[in-house]
Amino acid sequence: MHYNFKKDLQDGQRAEREAIEKLQVHFPEISDFQQSNTKYHDIEGVIDGQPITFEVKNDLMACQTGNVAIEYASRGKASGLTTTTANFWIYKFDNTFFLFETKILRERLFTEKKYFRKVTGGDEGSFTKMYLVKVVEFRTWGIELD
Length: 146
Description:
28% helix, alpha+beta, 38% strand, 4-stranded antiparallel sheet, single chain, Trna Endonuclease, Chain: A, domain 1
């Protein structure tokens, strides 16, 4: 698969808008949803007067490979799951959205080491490091947003 930053960015932003729609239905108690411009999370909202944040990932290869890729380092620096400030992660794969608590993902991957394997990939020169988790197992860590 050829990496195309501009197209991938547009796909990611579309997934963020779709995620907001899903969240509004699934969590009506959260208000003021908006896309964020920070590198630490993609969506912001408010619940009981407190901010709540979400990171959105659109995994285009998961349905083909049977694995979800979760980034933790890129270009020699911590990134992705390691650096996010998001309370929750939303993964879109196979046109389905799943919601995960960030702390649960970190426990499963960093502490329990519940991944299939580690890989390096991403755009040329990024040396992006990722955990691969079997889709079948990954689904059980969160909830589906219908």
